[in-house]
Amino acid sequence: MPINMKIFLKHCIPKYKRKKELIIH
Questions:
Q1: Count of domains observed in the chain
Q2: Ramachandran angles phi, psi of 4, nearest 5°
Q3: Burial class (CB in 10 A: 0-12, 13-18, 19+), 7
Q4: Distance CA 2, CA 15 (A)
């Protein structure tokens, strides 16, 4: 997983906890 994606997820997880699953898939 690219570092940028990791940072992106880190910032988005609080807002998009459910979307995290969508991003992973």
A1: 1
A2: -60, -40
A3: exposed
A4: 20
**Segments forming the whole domain that contains residue 9:** 1-25
pLDDT in tens, 1-25: 577 878 877 776 666 666 666 666 5
Q: What is the pTM of this model?
A: 0.30
Q: How far is CA 15 from the centre of its chain?
A: 10
Determine the pLDDT at residue 15.
Answer: 65
For residues 15 and 1, give the distance between their C-alpha atoms in angstroms, rounded to a whole number: 20
**The dihedral sign for the CA sequence 18, 19, 21, 22:** positive
Can you tell me the distance from the alpha carbon of 21 to that of 18, in angstroms, rounded to the nearest whole number?
A: 6
